[in-house]
Design brief:
By secondary structure, this protein is an alpha/beta fold. The protein is 33% helix and 22% strand.
Length: 323
């Protein structure tokens, strides 16, 4: 079977109980998560061969994070061990008109301080069909951005498909830095996933940003942005987007658009009631990769991906539970 490698940071996730704010609580629910770890676990749960690559500290917290990924069936044999700490993020679940909030404590993490030469891509990517990363990973540090670039160059030289979810995070870097880094990395990406503010913040491509007062047609704006991605980056064979119109922190309408060979495919609209929506975008990415690896048609692939993404919203936590 075909194999995927995901590269990024896994963190300790500390969530306030119910809908409490960080300032209110005296206890947190502990779990683990991170974009590429979420994708790896999603693929493993979907019974697809996948390896997760990162750097973890050699202490009980790092070992617990490693075991959490491993117990779902993802391969962790290429994880680098070293450094002193695991990154943390604090999670407040939004409700009604109050949005969800995340506070990062990831500076100085094992991955952030890792050096590019610690990742031996000729070994890591041996017998790999797809390399997956998100825009979160190069935002971790300049050295990790270099490591991603080296991985992408190896993939291009060896015919390995590359998937990038732009996944812009304003709490990690500003648009100027993001555009400088991502515009270079995108030259090697064969499938790009872009949502919401990703178009402009990550690549400087204007598209619908959620402000309905501007009178912009969301779908047509996304389609124009997707075409522009392919115009700028000829190596990018396809672009996918999820349109999430959230009316409250819990309720909204979701659909997906997929562009390949000049043809757009639109999924049906799904009404979603979200418990947390954590990892839903990552589940979309994983399901899209899984569907394409299994030879489904483009329409089947992106409709399957948006259904699974919506389904993940039906339970708590970043890890997917499909059964």
């Amino acid at each position: 079977m075909k194999r995927t490698v995901t590269f990024g940071e896994i963190m300790l996730r500390l969530k306030t109980p119910e809908h409490m704010r960080i300032l209110q609580t005296d206890a947190f629910e502990a779990s683990y998560g991170g974009a590429e770890a979420n994708v790896a676990v999603s693929l493993a749960v979907l019974k697809d061969p996948v390896s997760f690559v990162t750097k973890l500290p050699e202490n009980p917290v790092g070992t617990a994070a490693l075991n959490e990924v491993r117990r779902y069936g993802a391969d962790t044999s290429k994880v680098v061990i070293g450094g002193s700490r695991l990154g943390i993020y604090f999670f407040e679940k939004g409700t009604d008109i109050r949005p969800t909030n995340v506070v990062y404590d990831r500076e100085g993490s094992a991955l952030a301080l890792a050096k590019p030469e610690e990742f031996h891509w000729d070994e890591i990517l041996k017998d790999t069909d797809i390399f997956y990363f998100s825009g979160v990973t190069p935002a971790v540090s300049e050295n990790i951005a270099k490591a991603v670039l080296e991985a992408l160059k190896y993939c291009k030289a060896h015919g390995i498909e590359t998937v990038c979810d732009l996944n812009y995070r304003s709490k990690m870097w500003d648009t100027k830095k993001a555009q400088s880094v991502m515009s270079e990395l995108m030259n090697y990406v064969t499938l790009c996933i872009a949502n919401d503010e990703d178009f402009e913040s990550s690549l400087g491509i204007h598209a619908y940003d959620g402000d309905i007062s501007k009178g912009i047609d969301q779908i047509e704006s996304y389609k124009a942005g997707m075409k522009e991605i392919q115009n700028r980056y000829p190596n990018c064979k396809a672009v996918a987007s999820v349109l999430r119109n959230m009316y409250t922190a819990e309720d909204g309408d979701w659909m997906a658009i997929y562009l390949k060979d000049g043809v757009f495919y639109e999924s049906p609209v799904h009404k979603v009631h979200s418990f947390e929506a954590v990892g839903a975008g990552d589940a979309f990415s994983a399901a899209l990769v899984m569907s394409l690896l299994k030879g489904q048609t483009l329409r089947e692939a992106h409709e399957c991906a948006v259904k699974i993404s919506a389904f993940v919203c039906s339970h708590k936590g970043a890890w997917p539970v499909y059964e």
